[in-house]
Specification:
The complex is a heterodimer of chains A (244) and B (464).
Chain A lengths: L1 H28 L3 E4 L1 H4 L7 E4 L3 E10 L2 E7 L1 H21 L3 E4 L10 H22 L28 E12 L8 E10 L5 E7 L9 H16 L14
Parallel strand pairs in A: 2-5, 2-6, 3-6
Antiparallel strand pairs in A: 1-8, 3-4, 6-7, 7-8
Chain B lengths: L1 E2 L3 E3 L36 H19 L7 H15 L11 E5 L6 E3 L4 E5 H4 L5 H16 L2 H7 L2 H16 L10 H5 L4 H9 L3 H17 L5 H11 L10 H5 L4 H15 L10 H24 L3 H14 L4 H14 L13 H13 L2 H8 L3 H24 L4 H13 L3 H14 L7 H15 L6
Parallel strand pairs in B: 3-5
Antiparallel strand pairs in B: 2-4, 4-5
Helix pairs in contact in B: 2-4, 4-9, 6-8, 9-12, 10-12, 13-14, 13-15, 14-15, 15-18, 15-19, 18-19, 19-20, 20-21
The chains are: A alpha/beta (244), B mainly alpha (464).
């Protein structure tokens, strides 16, 4: 049993090292992509309004020495500011397409308390987290209506007057200068039906520019391309046939 | 921007037959020294201050994200046990002890350098007596007293675990996911770094020191130290009803059996003569009453995160203890409904290696809907669904009987009947729900939508 554990730990450690090395280059190797349901890209499900869920950003800083890792640091403050910047970028892109945007935290005319709304947002985020683990892994299934958050998204006050609920999620690794490695980030923008919770579309971005210092200039153009590709909003092209 | 450092206690799990400690502080008659850590010998450096700032930032983040469960009764209970474990020892410099309930399915407690001790709902849901909680808090506060977060942060070990932490970060990057995460790991809102570190814990020496200090602290506070030994034993045998990707790592945490033996040796030598076992029904019910909000929160989390078996087990525990509470009956009904075509306990086939591989595939490769669809292809799956639906209905109707004004029971019955295509019954229950909930309820709109859909189904006007 002892030997088995040692073998397992050795194997696990080796695996982790492989994962960490491969991850450092993962973003550079991946292309921006989007997945969307046909009813959205064809215009059968017109999108005029969106409800923005609170953005989620997670940044870590990895320090390197010439012979290996030095430290890993959380960046709580930077993560928060970055998340807000990401939200602003997405919001601006949607508005540019004639899509009106409301915050999920806005009580509108519901008369609900801020705490009650916060509770619903937490529930929806929790469900999203549960669904997105698999969705990010198998995004092509979005086209087959494989994922749903359930109609509890309809509890958000903004859902009444919104067509979609938008989730913005970013994860980034910042490495110290001189390590020979580059910063990397993955951004995910998910669109869900505001009434049924069905996942309608997903955009995955892997910026190869300075996503932290100049997020708008770095991410905005790529997002624009993907949203156009999805045929979203008033900039819609003629109905597309490819839904990825 | 500050370095990650936190302290961890390897999960304290519930004892089935735990030799529990007393809720009341018993005068201690044994000679036990409780360590106060290095005290003034510990000198703060810039690095330490940065770590402290990070701990404060983590506290703020959890609070802001709504991850801290605020329930006055539960908080009072946790605080009372924490206070008793701390006794009259002064807090170290730059430490303010706070005991916080984290809305998270993890079964690992952890503490930060600033004295914040987080007890996840996942862990609390498993605890059955106060002494077990005291052992958790004793261990965690010992890490803080001994300045383990700072020492660890300065040590070489940080470099050793860095690769693991980076791997955890890799897992947290969804697009770069090599090891897909699911179940409790995916559900956890705690930073992946923190989660990963919590699985690995501290070095054996530091864990051992925290065990010793924690045992001493709980004993002096009048708790039976056997509770810590029992929790280690249970942790070693920890088994889960659902597939958990992190389970092997968790189980392999260094030398749990050894730590249990050490705790047992201490307990056998130092148990206070007057430490009460605290196993009376009244006493256990009082503890369960205090931690019930955490169990409810965690069960809802289980339902939303594809852990329906765990949800059924937890809700059953609540209903068994408090059969007259409609809230718990509804929770049980929800849990059975969430099971769908899945059995409440693993089948014999699922316990085989092939069955486990299949479970793994279902969790990591299939969505909830796909999994249910696959189960329903078999006659067994169809029969299980009917059985679970019947149990859910029974629980909802029981809630109705207990309190006909309890609105949630009607809503959940509506959901169930809609699943069963009983649209007329569903609509009637939705209507009753809408009559009972306040006009400001955020749920009204979606239930109205559902009711309209059911009525359309009845009149044959439903859209697919």
């Amino acid at each position: 049993m002892k030997l088995r554990r040692q073998i397992f730990l050795a194997f696990a450690t080796a695996l982790f090292v492989c994962v960490s090395v491969s991850t450092a280059f993962a973003s550079a190797l991946q292309n921006n992509t989007s997945y969307v349901q046909r009813k959205v890209s064809s215009g059968k499900f017109p999108i005029h309004s969106a409800c923005m869920m609170p953005p989620q950003g997670h940044l870590i800083k990895i320090g390197f020495k010439s012979i290996g890792f030095k430290s890993v640091e959380e960046m709580p403050q930077e993560s928060e500011s970055w998340a807000e910047a990401l939200e602003a970028i997405v919001e601006a892109q949607l508005k540019a397409r004639g899509i009106s945007v409301t915050s999920a935290a806005n009580p509108l005319s519901s008369g609900a308390s801020a705490d009650a709304i916060k509770e619903v947002i937490a529930q929806v985020q929790q469900k999203f987290k549960a669904v997105s683990a698999l969705m990010y892994k198998k995004p092509k299934a979005i086209a087959k209506s494989a994922y749903t958050l359930g109609d509890q998204v309809g509890m958000l006050p903004c859902s009444e007057n919104s067509d979609i609920v938008v989730f913005v999620q970013g994860q980034g690794q910042v490495v110290t200068a001189g390590s020979g490695l580059e910063d990397a980030a993955d951004l995910f923008i998910t669109l869900a039906d505001a009434k049924t919770g069905e996942i309608l579309g997903l955009i995955q971005l892997y910026p190869d520019c300075n996503f932290l210092l100049v997020p708008e200039a770095c991410i905005g153009p790529d997002l624009d391309i993907e949203l156009t590709d999805m045929n979203l909003g008033s900039f819609r092209k003629k109905a597309k046939t490819n839904g990825h | 921007m500050v370095a990650v450092s936190f302290v961890v206690f390897c999960s304290m799990l519930a004892a089935q037959e735990a030799p529990a400690g007393s809720g009341a502080a018993a005068p201690n008659t044994v000679k036990v020294q409780v360590s106060n850590g290095p005290g003034a010998a510990f000198q703060f450096t810039k690095v330490d201050d940065a770590l402290l700032a990070e701990a404060n930032a983590i506290d703020e983040q959890y609070e802001k994200k709504g991850l801290v469960l605020h329930d006055p009764g539960l908080q009072a209970f946790i605080d009372s046990v924490g206070k008793r474990v701390l006794g009259d020892r002064p807090a170290p410099e730059k430490v303010t002890y706070r005991f916080l309930v984290l809305r998270d399915p993890m079964v690992n407690a952890f503490s930060l350098s600033n004295g914040s001790v987080y007890i996840p709902t996942g862990l609390l849901s498993l605890l059955e007596n106060e002494a077990q909680l005291a052992s958790v808090l004793g261990h965690e506060t010992a890490h803080v007293y001994e300045r383990h977060p700072y020492i660890e942060n300065r040590s070489i070990r940080k470099k050793v675990v860095a690769s693991k932490i980076i791997a955890a970060a890799a897992i947290s990057v969804p697009g770069g996911t090599v090891l897909a995460v699911a179940s409790a790991v995916a559900a956890s809102e705690v930073s992946n770094l923190l989660l990963w570190e919590s699985i690995y814990g501290y070095s054996r020496e530091k864990e051992s020191q925290a065990d010793s200090d924690g045992l001493a602290a709980m004993t002096v506070a009048g708790y039976d130290p056997h509770a810590m030994a029992v929790t280690f034993e249970l942790l070693d045998k920890y088994n889960t009803l659902e597939y958990e990707p992190h389970y092997p790592l968790f189980q392999d945490h260094p030398k749990l059996a050894e730590r249990r033996e050490q705790a047992l040796a201490f307990a056998n030598a130092h148990t206070p003569m007057d430490a009460r076992t605290g196993t009376t029904q009244d006493y256990l019910a009082a503890v369960l009453t205090a931690i019930a909000p955490a169990i409810v929160d965690d069960t809802n989390n289980d339902i939303e995160n594809r852990r329906p078996r765990t949800a059924v087990a937890r809700a059953t525990r609540l209903v068994s203890a408090f059969p007259g509470d409609p809230q718990y009956q509804v929770l049980l009904g929800d849990s059975y409904r969430a099971l769908g075509a899945e059995t409440a306990l693993p089948t014999n086939n699922e316990l085989t290696s092939g069955g486990k591989a299949q479970q793994r595939k279902e969790v990591l490769e299939m969505s909830e809907q796909e999994e249910q669809k696959a189960l329903l292809k078999t006659p067994e799956g169809q029969a299980t669904l009917k059985e679970n639906q019947a149990k859910a209905e029974k629980a909802f109707l029981a809630a109705n009987q207990i309190d006909p004004q309890y609105a949630l029971a009607y809503r959940e019955l509506g959901f169930l009947y809609e699943d069963e295509l009983r649209y007329s019954d569903a609509a009637a229950n939705y209507q009753r729900y809408l009559q009972l909930v306040p006009s400001t309820s955020l749920d009204r709109l979606r239930i109205k939508r559902r009711m309209a859909q059911c009525q359309n189904h009845q009149t044959g006007q439903a859209h697919p």
